[in-house]
Amino acid sequence: MKTSAIIIILLLTGTLSAQDKGYVQNRISIETTCGHIPLMNPQKAHATDTLFCERLAYNEDYYEPYTRRIIIYDEFGRIIETIYGNYPWGNYKNSFKEIFTYTPFDSLATYQSMIWNDSLGVDGAWDNTNFITYTYDNQNKLIRLEKQFSPMDIQEWENNRISSFEYYPNSFKTKKETIEYFNAEEDVWQTYQTHEYTYNPNDQVTEKVTHYSDDDGQTWSGTSRFTYNYDETSGKIVIQQVPDGENWRNSWRFTHILNDNDAPNEILKVMWNTHDSAWDTLIQEKRVFTYNNFGQITSETYMSKYFEWFNIQKKTHTYDQNNSLNGGTNYDWDFNDSIWVAKTQCALKTNQPLLIHETSRLLNFNFYPNPANGVINIALPQKDRNGLIQVIDQYGRIVKQFNNIPEKITLLHQPTGIYFLRIKHKSGANTKKFVLR
Fold first, then answer.
1. Contact status, residue 41 vs residue 324, Cβ threshold 8 Å
2. How far is it, in rounded angstroms, from Cα 66 to Cα 57?
């Protein structure tokens, strides 16, 4: 049975997805052993990265080859292919492959995953597993995600899942997501799940209600609810609830202690004690984060509490001079010696990318100031303003986009850190980096 190579980014396993930020995002990064790599990084134009990881051998005397991942970028710095493999018995073996395509607005258009099948051909070959198509409206809002699946050794696509999205009027805020699965036995689509969102005047999610249906796709059999509370001292508190008769009963609480960039310094997970009708103070979990000056995560520490707090696991991330991820180490806590033990260590190497200023048909433009405090001024002749301009953050997300290039771009509510200005025009294209502080 094949498994999906799609990776959903969670803050805590089984808790909150990217959709809980108040809007639906298509996939923006790939998850690796040493951290997340954005799908788009203009500084990686024409580059090929190799991420090589070693793990501590069983007897803990040396490190042995563990995994290798090849990441291939196109001329715009978008990931178009990754090939992942491991080293069983010391020899490299292909495991899975991913292929990405994009829309003219740099949103993900299709995603295809394959696994290596030793039974195909003479020496084995890539075997299709999943194919996802993303559909957007004229405002570049994701409105439909359609997934197809290919069973082992069968080179045909079968319907699997459709997610459709509704938005509040004149907004990018998701109102409802409906998930349908294909019933192959009856040859019909059946609604499986819905997510409904409400917001406060600051466009922050205040409630997410999920409904589940029975196998017939008609009868609703289950519900869960997340409620969100925000304040300056506690940050963000998310409470998961389940039905209890006609009322709601608490299940989990997630407290996000936020920094000045609204990124979590700490996420505390607490379970509801039904016996005492109170939040459990004896058994808890938390993740603690540290960041560099550009807002990039440098470490994540996972801790657990059983009367007292103790360490469990830790991840560290390193970055190169261009602020791109270039390595990381995963640790386990040794309870006998009370020290961190490096279990996996990774390093990423880049084949010489084609530098941005070396690209053909380079469009010359200037902007100021850099660093910027919230407003960017674009210096460009009026005849060249009929083009596309995008502001891209360090994670590859498009945070601003204009089909006609304005004289000023306001970024007052964006977190500080590294950003890119990308301009596409009939006379050329160019990308430049700036710092927002």
1. yes
2. 10
E-assigned strand segments in 28-78: 29-32, 35-38, 48-56, 63-73
Model confidence over 114-172: pLDDT tens digits? 999 998 888 889 999 999 999 999 888 899 999 999 987 777 889 999 999 999 998 88
Sequence spans of domains, the chain: 18-230+311-350, 232-291, 361-436
Q: Which stretches does DSSP call E strand in 245-365?
A: 247-258, 264-273, 278-291, 297-306, 308-319, 325-334, 339-350
Amino acid at 9: I
Q: At 137, phi and psi to the nearest 5? A: -90, -175
Helix (H, G, I), strand (E, B) or coil at 398: strand
* Beta-carbon contacts of residue 430 (< 8 Å; ≥ 6 apart): 356, 359, 362, 363, 364, 365, 422, 423
Question: 181-195: string of b/e by CB count within 10 Å (b at 16+)?
Answer: bbeeeeeeeebbbbb
Least Cα distance to 78 among 405, 390, 346 occurs for 390
- Residue 248 in 3-state DSSP? strand
pTM: 0.80
Joined together, the tokens standing for residue 293 give: 């000056």
Q: What is the residue-wise DSSP string for 184-212?
A: TTTTEEEEEEEEEEEE-TTS-EEEEEEEE
pLDDT of residue 216: 65
Which tokens is 229 given?
């509370």
pLDDT digit string (tens) for 300-336? 999 999 999 999 999 999 999 888 899 999 999 999 9
CB 388 within 8 A of CB 425: yes
Contact predicate 159/182, CB 8 Å: yes
Look at residue 43 and give its three-state secondary structure. Answer: helix
CATH code for residues 361-436: 2.60.40.3080
| CATH code of the domain made up of 18-230+311-350 | 2.40.128.720
Report how far residue 375's alpha carbon sits from residue 377's, in angstroms, rounded to the nearest whole number: 7
Distance between CA atoms of residues 355 and 322, nearest Å: 12
- pLDDT tens, residue by residue, 38-57: 998 888 988 999 999 999 98
CA 391 from chain center: how many Å? 18
Q: Using alpha carbons only, give the angle 360, 366, 371 rounded to the nearest 5 degrees.
A: 120
